[in-house]
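Quick one, probably user error.
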């Protein structure tokens, strides 16, 4: 009878040891999973910050290029509008850049890249005249926006959130 109790005690101890080992293994896996999740979130945050930094830098370069007449106003507005659409902007900021979006929307029908190259020269001239008319009409307002961006660059101190 003593041997039976000793055997049962041994079985209980072995089962307790196995249960403890399995619990420890599950706990360790949970901890590893939490660490992996945290690393993934940090990587996503870094990736998002890199994306925003790239957009901010691009917006600042475009503003400088337009101000220095290295980039036509129409092209600068198109490029800037596409980038601004990728930022979470508040209503005040959208209003501040409304002329950029206005020029962009007025030129959306104009073919670009390979479609532009495929156009006959007379059609290109027609579209160029449209763009020049837009540039003359909005020159001062666009230059004011570009000067504002140059004076308050995206991603730098106060300009980190131009909002």
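Nope, works fine. Designed sequence:
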């Amino acid at each position: 009878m003593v041997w039976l109790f000793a055997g049962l005690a041994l079985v209980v101890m072995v089962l307790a040891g196995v249960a403890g080992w399995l619990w420890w293994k599950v706990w360790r896996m949970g901890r590893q999973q939490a660490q992996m999740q945290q690393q993934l979130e940090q990587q996503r945050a870094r990736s998002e910050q890199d994306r925003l930094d790239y957009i901010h830098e691009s917006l600042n370069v475009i503003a400088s290029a337009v101000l220095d007449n290295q980039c036509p106003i129409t092209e600068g507005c198109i490029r800037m509008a596409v980038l601004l659409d990728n930022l979470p902007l508040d209503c005040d900021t959208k209003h501040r850049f409304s002329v950029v979006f206005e020029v962009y929307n007025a030129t959306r029908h104009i073919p670009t890249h390979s479609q532009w190259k495929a156009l006959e020269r007379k059609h290109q001239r027609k579209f160029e005249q449209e763009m020049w008319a837009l540039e003359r009409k909005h020159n001062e307002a666009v230059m004011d926006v570009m000067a504002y961006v140059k004076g308050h660059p995206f991603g730098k101190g106060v300009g980190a959130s131009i909002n």
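The chain has one domain: 45-161.
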